[in-house]
Specification:
single chain, about 190 residues, mainly beta, 4-stranded antiparallel β-sheet
Length: about 190
């Protein structure tokens, strides 16, 4: 989701399905949300990412512990807060670390990401294609953004732009008006 020039998006949230994909030591697979802003004049992107991830080379071979959570801006301080389950404030990133996020030119992606140094590409989400739907594919539900007045607003299908750079391996499918499915088995994706 991209903000319009007249809108200032100040936070993001979502409910994520959490999976335990099998990846090799030089791969990662993740699901989550993030907020980012590009300052073109200095070619700088500020970004805060959060969600779940499996990355053995970072976390230790075989470590597949996962976490799901949401974050938004504190209206009093401008800091970027991390909150879990709408209950527990877990910490924050001071606003001075992300000068680009103070602008109104923001994107808020939800979904999955993978990386591999070589073929085959790893599983994304549950490893099932998005069109397999409920009980099979990974999902993002209740995806919402916080507006400039710090009101939480749900992001509907009309507000979103779907993107997959390798649809033969990973796909996206809307689910009613409050979420979407994503993911795929990976494999030899041609990238």
């Amino acid at each position: 989701m991209r903000s319009s020039p007249s809108a200032k998006l100040t936070g993001v949230q979502a409910d994520l399905s959490v999976h335990n994909p099998s990846v090799s030591n030089q791969q990662f697979s993740a699901g989550g949300v993030h907020i980012q802003s590009m300052t073109e004049a200095i070619n700088q992107t500020d970004s805060i990412k959060t969600g779940w991830m499996v990355q053995p080379s970072l976390l230790g071979v075989g470590d597949t512990q996962t976490h799901a959570y949401a974050k938004w801006t504190d209206s009093n301080t401008g800091d970027w807060w991390l909150q879990y389950n709408f209950e527990k404030l877990m910490g924050y990133w001071p606003k001075h670390l992300f000068t680009g996020l103070q602008s109104s030119n923001r994107e808020m992606p939800w979904g999955g990401a993978v990386y591999s140094e070589s073929s085959p590409s790893p599983v994304m989400g549950s490893g099932r294609f998005a069109e397999e739907g409920w009980r099979y594919a990974a999902f993002v539900a209740n995806h919402a953004y916080m507006d400039e007045s710090h009101n939480l607003r749900f992001a509907y299908e009309k507000d979103l732009e779907a993107y997959s750079d390798t649809p033969m391996c990973y796909r996206f499918a809307p689910y009613m008006d409050f979420g979407f499915f994503y993911g795929g088995p990976g494999g030899n994706c041609g990238t």
